[in-house]
Amino acid sequence: MFTRFQQDGLTSKVVGASYRTNILEPGGTYEPDLLIRRFLGRESKSLDDFDFPTLN
């Protein structure tokens, strides 16, 4: 979700309002993936898409 803030800036009032409207206000009334999709305007990436270093 951070990509949306990166695009328009961390202090963007537009992105902040969208985050509040699409993520915070609905809370647990919808599935998280639907809330994220509404906020981003696209499907979110799966954690499987990222290459995380292992902590051994």
Overview of the molecule:
With 56 residues, the protein is mostly helical. It has one domain. Helices cover 50% and strands 0% of the residues. It is built from three helices and no strands. Helix 2 runs antiparallel to helix 3. It is globular. The termini are far apart. 4% of the residues are buried. The mean pLDDT is 84.
Provide the residue-averaged pLDDT.
84
Distance between the termini: 28 Å
Number of domains: 1
Structural class: mainly alpha
- The radius of gyration is 13 Å
In percent, how much strand structure appears in the residues? under 5%
Characterize the biggest β-sheet.
none
Low-confidence stretches: none
SSE string, helix = H, strand = E? HHH
How would you concisely characterize the structure shown here?
By secondary structure, the chain is an all-alpha fold. It has three helices and no strands.
